[in-house]
Amino acid sequence: MQAVSPSHNLNSSSIIRPSKPRKLNRLNRFAVRCVHRYDSVQFPNGVGSSRADWQSSCAILSSKVFSQDQGSGEKSTPHSNSDHLAAAVNGHQTSLDLNLVPIDKNNKPQPPAQKPLSMTDLSPAPMHGSQLRVAYQGVPGAYSEAAAGKAYPNCEAIPCDQFEAAFQAVELWIADRAVLPVENSLGGSIHRNYDLLLRHRLHIVGEVQLPVHHCLLALPGVRKEYLTRVISHPQALSQCEHKLTKLGLNVTREAVDDTAGAAEYIANNNLRDTAAIASARAAELYGLQILADGIQDDSGNVTRFVMLARDPIIPRTDRPFKTSIVFAHDKGTSVLFKVLSAFAFRDISLRKIESRPHRNRPIRLVDDANVGTAKHFEYLFYVDFEASMAEVRAQNALAEVQEFTSFLRVLGSYPMDMTPWCPSRGDEPSL
Ligand SMILES: O=C(O)C(=O)C[C@]1(C(=O)O)C=C[C@@H](O)C=C1
Questions:
Q1: What is the ipTM score, two decimals?
Q2: Could you report the per-residue pLDDT of 183-210, keeping only the tens digit for each?
Q3: Where in 280-343 does DSSP place strands (E)?
Q4: Is residue 91 part of a domain?
C-alpha cells in the first residue's frame, strides 16, 4: 500500500461542507419514490449522492418485489431473480440498459449485450482508472492506515485529521472508500463513527478486523524513568491502562487524535519526557525507539473497521454476509423487543446492538406526499445481523421491523470478516 505524505493530510476546515443530510424515509416510501424516479433517472458522469440514495432505495424495492413473488416462503434461492434485479439496480453496467432496446445505425433493434456479473462489480474499480484511494483517520503509521491496507491491498491511503473528514473525502470524490474503526475488543464501540454513519449517506461495503499490537515509543536514548507523560489516541490509552501501571510509570495520560500522530508530535518537538502508544511502524516512520512491546492489556486486542463507499454493493448469498441497520421509534424504546423478535423468529443471529441517545437532534422524515417532518427520537438503535439482504428471511424480517419503527435505514449488507478474534504477538510486554 502506498501512503501519501502527511502534508497531504485532509484538514476538515479545508473541506467544503457537504449539503445538509438527505431526507430519511421509511422503506415503503423509499420504494415509492424509487418507482417514480426510475423512468426519469439520468446518470451523468459525475454521479452524486442522489444516485446512491436511489440505488439503496431500489435494492430494497427489488428485495420487496422478490419477496412478494415468493409468497410467504422464507427460503432463499442463491442467484435467484432477486440477485439479477438487485444487480440491475445497483449500478452494474446492465442497469443503464434496463428499458432500452439497443438500436443499430439502420434503426434495427439489437439483442442486448449482457455482461455477466464479476467480482469487480461487487466492489467497483475507481472511475479515474488509478489506484483505489482510501481515506482513513490519522497519519501514516496509524492502525487505521494498516486497516485500509488490509481491506484494499495496493490502495493509495489518504490520511484525514478527523473521522468526519474521511466521510467527506468519499462524498466529495477525493477518495473512493473510507476505512473507519467502529469497535474494539477491549474499548468497545467507537461511538463517533456510529453517529457519523447516520449523518452521512455512505454505505457499508465491507468490514475488516485488525489485531492491534501497541508499543511504548520514545526518542532514542530516553529511558522510561525520564517519562512524565504518555500520549495517544483515547482508545489506545484505554487499551493499555493496566499495562502502563504495571510498567511502573509515574506518568500523566493525554489524549491526542491518533496513535501515529502522537509519535510524530514527539519527534517533531523533540520531547524527551513524553512517550507515545503507537505501532512499531510508527516508531520506524518517526525515528523513535520501542521502550516496551505488546503493552495492550489483552493479547487478543482487535479493532473492527468498516469500509464505506458512495454506492452499496450487491448483496449475495454465496458467502456469509452481515447487514447493519439503524432504527428508532417515536413512541419510546418499547419497540426494541418486537424488533429483536423479528430476527429471532427467523433464526437470524444478531452480532451487535448499540443504542445512541439522540434526543437533541431531530431526524427529518418524509411522507408519501414528500412532506418532511422533524422527529425527535430518544434513542437510535444500531443492529448488525448475520444475513444478507439477498435472503428472503432478511427481507421479511426487515419488512416486519419497518412495521414497528418510525425510522429505519439499511447502512449496508456486506461480506463478513470471518477471521476469529485471535491474540496478537505475545501476552506480556517485553522491556
Ligand atoms: O489512532 C490510530 O492509530 C487509529 O487508527 C485509531 C484507533 C481507534 O480509533 O480505535 C484504531 C485502532 C486502535 O483501536 C486504536 C486507535
A1: 0.96
A2: 999 888 999 999 899 889 899 999 999 9
A3: 289-293, 302-309, 321-328
A4: yes
